[in-house]
Structure formats: structure tokens, C-alpha cells
Amino acid sequence: MHRRDRRIALSVSAALLAAPLLTACGSDAHPGAAAVVGGERIEVSTLQAQVKDVRAAQAASPQAAQLLGTSGDLNRRKLNGLIFDRVVNKVAADNGVTATRAELQQTRAAFVRQSGGEDRLAAVLLQEQGVAPDQIDGVVRRNVLMNKIAAKLGITETPEGQEKLTKVFTAASKALDIDVNPRFGAWDDAQVQLDGAYDGAPWLRQVSQDPGAAQAGA
Hints:
This protein is mainly alpha-helical. The chain is built from 8 helices and 5 strands, in the order ββαααααααβββα.
């Protein structure tokens, strides 16, 4: 892969993978749901399972104390990522974009090479993004889809390109009518993230014209 390809973001969704532990949903309309996206529920149990996997991986890490002590927002980060993935899926479907098995394999292999090995990749994603080893394929898939969406839409590293991408994702987000459990705040369609979770939708700022270099930075 050429040099720009090597920029594929290991932090592709640091901002998008952001998510605190849940109990029951605070909304009477959707009891037991962390969020409802496009009429489909993201169950509290689904979010708790993701958080549990990350906590287990952190506990097994040589940096366990540090990781466990600096990831207090893990539930909120994970919920943000679960919702955002559904927005990505809609934008991809609306634009005829798919991720083939070969593309997923190639991108993961690039991640591994860039990181210096499979174990190093897992360690980096766990430390920087709160991603458990069994969640890496989801990061890879999001990266492939985001890159291909950017390519399909002709997104460039210009204010105009970023504005175009923002409009596309905002429209998809609104169409999904996202309803979040109040204990996690509210979904911001304009920023395509949980309200107040990040500063200025950083996932948008790094997307470039080269699909191999598209990023969603921390």
C-alpha cells in the first residue's frame, strides 16, 4: 500500500467509539433500550456486553491499573459508536457502498502491519479507543465504509468537502430519528454524535479524498 494508505486511522473511531454502565432505560416509550435508531433498539444488554468485553481485556493487560482508571466514560463511548455505526450503514446503503470480505481482510492486514503485529494492534486499540480484541473487526468495517463513502462522494480535504460530508451524515442521522436513553444525553444530528461528547465532530475533519487515508480522528 502507498504512503497515504498507511495513514488509515488506527484511531478511526476514537471519537466514534466513545461510550458509562447501564441499567434500565429512562424512557417509558422504550424500556430497556439504550437507544432506538431507525426504529431498531440498541438494548442495554448489548451495550453492557461490549463494555464487559473491554473491561475484561483491560483487566488482563499489563497496563490494567492505568486503563481501568482512565476509561470512566466507556459506556457513553460505546453507545456513541453503536449509534454512529448505524448512521454509517445508512449512508453506505443510500450511496450503494458495501464492504467486501477482501477489503476487510486487506484493511485489517494494513492495520496489523502499521501497528507492528496483531498483538500490538489489539493493545493500541484497547488503550486509545477502548476496543476489545473481538471488536476490532467492527473498527475495520467502519473504516472501510467511511473510506468508500468519502471516495464515492468525492470528499476532499477542504472546508467544502467537510461541509458536504457533514450534510450527508446529518441528513442520514435525522432520517433515523435517533432516540437516546436520557441518562446518556441526547443525540446531536448536526454533530452526528451524543450531545457534548466531542468537540466539533472530529470524525469529519480528517476525511480525505484518498479512500485509503480517510480517518475519523480522536
